[in-house]
Design a protein that fits this description.
two-stranded parallel ribbon; globular; single chain; alpha/beta; 9 strands
Length: about 220
């Protein structure tokens, strides 16, 4: 039985990933905590609390994998502190919960340019998050770093809408990537043989086609 934890299930990537996990015969149960109730779906257990930490703490069912698609912006969060809570603290709490419950593989959506030494707050926080996960001792850790995400958000981000046309023609790791493609790549990475403890998937390596290809390792 494959039981997974998915945090960020209502977000742009997370909502696509949730649908893929439901459709995947290799997944038996999905624990998807959210702030607002999800529609009833097969295989999905949906604990609901305003703060994700309040849901994660009492979980006691064994897990095989953790998928973390949490992410916001400073503007959307309302402050630096609120942004840090979502993009760092809750990501780390998701991972620690997985380790506590026996998960062997952590898969997380970070961002292109993540670097804990970056002068840019967003990139610095993403880099610090990645660094913290690397030091947790996961048997397998997969980090995916998409560039600007495209897709239909419930809450539009004006800057992303303005920048999308430019990022759609940029080369390599800078090119915008559909959220669906990120979700497909996460599924592919979850069930691909792991040769290394840490697998880093840069944005340019995310297949844009319907069939996601294998991930690269470091």
């Amino acid at each position: 039985m494959n039981r997974v934890l998915l945090t960020g299930a209502t977000g742009l990537v997370g909502s696509h990933l949730l649908r893929l996990l439901i459709q995947d015969a290799r997944i038996d149960e999905i624990i998807a905590p959210t702030r607002r109730p999800l529609p009833a779906m097969r295989k999905v257990v949906n604990p609901v609390e305003e703060d994700l930490t309040d849901v994660l703490r009492p979980l006691n069912a064994s897990l095989d994998m953790v998928f973390c698609c949490l992410g916001t912006t400073r503007k959307q969060a309302g402050s630096k502190e609120a942004f840090l809570h979502v993009d760092y603290t809750l990501v780390i709490d998701s991972a620690l919960t997985g380790l506590r419950l026996g998960a062997r593989h952590m898969l997380v959506v970070s961002a292109h340019g993540a670097n804990r030494h970056s002068p840019f707050f967003y990139s610095k926080v993403k880099g610090e998050m990645e660094n913290a996960l690397r030091h947790q001792g996961w048997p397998r850790l997969t980090i995916i770093r998409p560039s600007l995400l495209t897709g239909d958000r419930v809450h539009k981000r004006s800057v992303e809408s303005l920048m999308a046309p430019l990022f759609s023609i940029l080369p390599g790791d800078w090119r915008a990537v559909p959220a669906k493609a990120v979700a497909r790549t996460l599924i592919e990475a979850a069930f691909s043989p792991g040769r290394n403890a840490v697998t880093l998937i840069e944005s340019g390596a995310i297949p844009r086609s319907e069939a996601a290809a294998g991930a690269g390792s470091e």
